[in-house]
Amino acid sequence: MNTLPKCPQCNSEFTYEDGAMFICPECAHEWPRVVAESTDDRRVVCDANGNVLMDGDTVAVVKDLKVKGSSLVVKVGTKVKNIRLVEGDHDIDCKIDGIGAMQLKSEFVKKV
Length: 112
What we know:
Layout: E1 16-18, E2 21-23, E3 30-32, H1 33-37, E4 45-46, E5 52-53, E6 59-61, E7 65-66, E8 73-74, E9 79-80, E10 84-85, E11 92-96, E12 100-104, E13 109-111
Antiparallel strand pairs: 1-2, 2-3, 4-5, 6-9, 6-13, 7-8, 10-11, 11-12
InterPro entries: YjdM (IPR004624), YjdM_C (IPR013988), YjdM_N (IPR013987)
Organism: Sulfuricella denitrificans (strain DSM 22764 / NBRC 105220 / skB26)
Protein name: Protein YjdM
């Protein structure tokens, strides 16, 4: 009997383990084991590499990000200190030097 979790994207039951990740062969979705093993009600937020993020962490941007409504760009490697996790599509609230308060998606940052 398969005790692995179903794919959260397509609900396929044919998932498999690869190191610290689960992979769905049908839709190619990958997610960290930590997310699947989370037993409490809190939402687990992971960075681009699958590391679990917590409030107060320092992260670095992994891709140039254009700031909407402005000509500013957050460059690759920009370090953001003291992040705060929030609910929603953009799950990180932060303050970036020279730009100000912003919301980022966790898929565009890595834990430092």
